[in-house]
Amino acid sequence: MSIVSPTLKDDDKPKIFQLAVAAMEELVRMAEIGEPLWTRNYLNGTTVLNENEYIQTLPRWIRTKPVGFQREASRETVVVLMNRVNIIEILMDVNQWSAVFSSIVSQAMTLELLSSSKGEAGTYNGVLQVMTAEFQVPSPIVSTRQSHYLRYCKQLVEDTWAVVDVSLDNILQTNRAVRCRRRPSGCLIQEMPKGYSKVTWVENVEVDYRGVHDLYMQLVSSGYAFGAKRWVVTLDRHCLRLAIASNITTNSHTGDVRDHEERKRMLRMADRMMISFLAGVSANPDHTWKTVLSGTGGDDVRLMTRDSIYDPTRPPGLVLCATTSFRLPVSPIRVFDFLRDDTTRNQWDVLSNEGVVLETAHIANGWNTSNCVSLLRVLDNTENSSQGKMLLVQESRSDPTASFVIYAPVDTVAMDEILNGGEYPDYLTLLPSGFAILPDGTAVHRGSIDAAASGGSLLTVSFQIFVDLVPNARVSLEIIATIINLVACTVEKIKASLSCEDA
Can you tell me which family this protein belongs to (predicted)? Predict the structure, then answer.
């Protein structure tokens, strides 16, 4: 892992415990106090902090912000279909947490447990751990935010728990320049009847905007890109995914996968595909990727390679990832609907060679049928049968903060074995390509992606392609030119199809 691990000394621990208690006190107050501490930002549909009121109301943590730093602070509340125990398990287990929030958390690990992994009475009550993580926007031209911080879990009253984070930069000694400082942030979780929970999420950070491209500056500086709304809608979508995936919905769809085990296998493949895609588009990819060509701005293409050796989830040899980000003057929902629609796929997908795309299997993973995992078969123009040359696994997902259309070609025989209970889905070779769609920050939002009809979109396009059987092979200039041309051609086709060639 490429994130830097600081050194924790014995005499640091008492300070960390004191910090945890004070941070919990502030988080609870920030979660419970309403106006005028918090005000509604109708530009992007978020609840943001009134900093002057914050300074007067909560003086304990007020210090002068470092020169050039800006504050981002927001709060959101959501009722989710998951019990309190499972939510806390996700937050306190770094592997679950980074997987559920993979579109936000690019890398994470627990550095040290300062209490047992289970606290009082076998719960996480009183558990304190030191963590390090990087937070991302799915684009190579928005720098990730690395933070070293404590995470503390506490039961407040019988039915309410809290989990708080706060940076340890003033305690831990590191050689890195601090670009992001987490003030007390986290969530209150209140148990509700019938397995539901009410979650109030607070994000409060001070951040240096160097490393954010102008294309994304409005979205990031508004607090929308890394704010509380993004966390709660991601948690809500995860809860819906689990609930709906385990039950056949009453709204039937052609090709619905009705077998419970088949649905679980396909969803696991989709999760793995999404995590791999996000690792390729992150501004600070993990150490397995090597940069060949670094794009520095909008419309530039970043090229990276990785060696696949003894990895059953990827073909053995050299894999290349090509990524670019650009703006479209059309709404995110319009871009999402266009890219996920199998009837319009041949308008942009160069690799389908203008063939017909047929959906052969479908799993809904949200209340809207556009949120789904699908099996797609690409047919030649001359073919009328269901047997095509290419089979794709695709996930389409959207929420009020971001949309994704991610796909990967799969081996037909291996896929049939997986669906029939044979080969384990974690070992199917997947090289994901696709799109991350974000609002550009110019629209007035009213709580859903549909409301952003007047705003534009920020689109990241990424391809992962197998290029050589030999690991560590040198990528030829001819291959580089071909891949860049593939990306450019795809971008041009999308702009032409959406009538925005001059974007």
Answer: Belongs to the HD-ZIP homeobox family. Class IV subfamily.
Residues 6+ apart with CB under 8 A from 66: 178, 181, 206, 208
Beta pairing partners, 146: 134
269-302: pLDDT as tens digits: 888 899 989 988 988 766 667 777 766 555 688 8
CA distance 437 to 286: 22
Contacts of residue 154, defined as CB under 8 A and 6 or more positions apart, other chains included, come to: 24, 125, 126, 161, 162, 164
Cα 272 from Cα 294, distance rounded (Å): 26
- On the CB side of 353, CA atoms within 13 Å amount to 9
On the CB side of 474, how many CA atoms lie within 13 Å of its CA?
Answer: 3
Distance CA 286, CA 102 (A): 13
Rg (CA), the chain: 23
Rounded to whole angstroms, the Cα distance separating 65 from 181 reads 10
Q: In the structure encoding, which two tokens stand for residue 400, read together?
A: 């009020």
At 296 the pLDDT is 56
pLDDT per position as a tens digit, 166-222: 998 877 766 567 888 899 999 999 999 999 999 999 999 999 988 788 999 999 988
Helix axes 477-497, 332-340, angle to 10 degrees: 110
CB atoms closer than 10 angstroms to residue 11: 7
Tens of pLDDT, residue by residue over 442-490, are 765 544 444 444 689 999 999 998 887 666 778 888 888 899 999 999 9
The pLDDT > 90 percentage for the chain reads: 40
Integer angstrom CA distances of residue 56 from 52, 62, 71, 242: 7, 9, 16, 42
Q: Contact 189/88 with Cβ under 8 angstroms? A: yes
Rounded CA gap, 177 and 173, in Å? 11
- Phi, psi (rounded to 5 degrees) for 488: -60, -40
Residue showing tokens 């479209």? 328
C-beta neighbour count of 265 within 10 angstroms = 23
Q: For residue 275, which amino acid is it?
A: I
What SS3 string covers 242-301?
HHHHCCCCCCCCCCECCCHHHHHHHHHHHHHHHHHHHHHHCCCCCCCCEEEECCCCCCCC
